[in-house]
Amino acid sequence: MKNSVALLLFIFVITSVQAQKNKFNLLIGTYTNKCDSKGIYVYDFDSNTGNFNFKNATENVINPSFLSVSKENNYIYAVNENGDKSMVSSFSYLPSTGKMDFINKESAKGTDPCYIINDDKNVIIANYSSGSISVYGKNNDGSITEAKQVVQHYGKGITQNQTGPHAHMVYFSPDKKYVLGNDLGIDKVFTYAYNPNSPHEILKKKDSISVKPGSGPRHLTFSKDGKFVYLLQELDGTLTVFSYSNGTLKKIQETSVVSKDFKGTIGAADIHISPDGKFLYASNRGTANDISIFKILKNGKLESKGKMSTKGNGPRSFTIDPSGNFLLVAHQYTNDVVIFKRDQLTGAISDTGKKIELCSPVCLVFTEN
User: Residue 27 and residue 71: Cα distance in Å, rounded?
Assistant: First the structure.
């Protein structure tokens, strides 16, 4: 009898541990000025089933439209996109409960920040409307310092959306030696040498590469081996593949997330690679509202595997859960996060019928719980 009880207890413990391994926290950043939102939300997400449960939320946080979590998983950094009153905020974060407590905030030193990254030393943001990049130090308590550096871009493009510079993303290279910055307004990708311990010149321009005029570079991502960069251009839907080495980009392929016969409005948005590094996904807003699927070939180039409707309006952001089983799409205008099942062999996605109803979700980040 004792052996039977011990066996059952052992099975229960193992099952509980396995179940916990399949659970992640899903952080969601939102716009708060269009509908009823508290700011940042945390949901418990099961990567086996795609089921979710509300866990926690902030209170009265203005437009935390993009989030970045510390490596230790104990602090959250958010932009507060609010015109010339824009800020950058820090929060303590307890993954087990999802509890978030405000620590401090600083001026964005620019207008409408739309991307944020952090490492052990610094927090870096891209300011869209002012076309600048701001860098902040990190204190031991998770708070951020005043801006230590502001890098201003200059120039304009050829379309009505490019009357000035529009910094749209900052992104660490895999070795953290460089920060890449996309500027939609001037059709350039900048490479900055990254000096994390410098008091004032944390970012120092090394190089820049121009892309097709009027294309509007928005987001990029690195291949899993760090040898290739994939750049999505918002204004014309171009998807460019670069080889990458020591801060230098070299174009090797150009394709598109837009069908040749497409006649609607283009608004390419987000781009991500599956955890196994085999497939790339890119979203298109406008009137398309779809996800393009590409297989990544051994030479880094892309092979189209079709498109899938995102089942909503305004797929501003999407993410793939750490297990690779699900792809989640945040719809800014239909106020939901649609959950797709992902076939890890073919890369195809299918609608699960499950979705998180939430005001204006625009950023999705998975963390350990």
Answer: 15
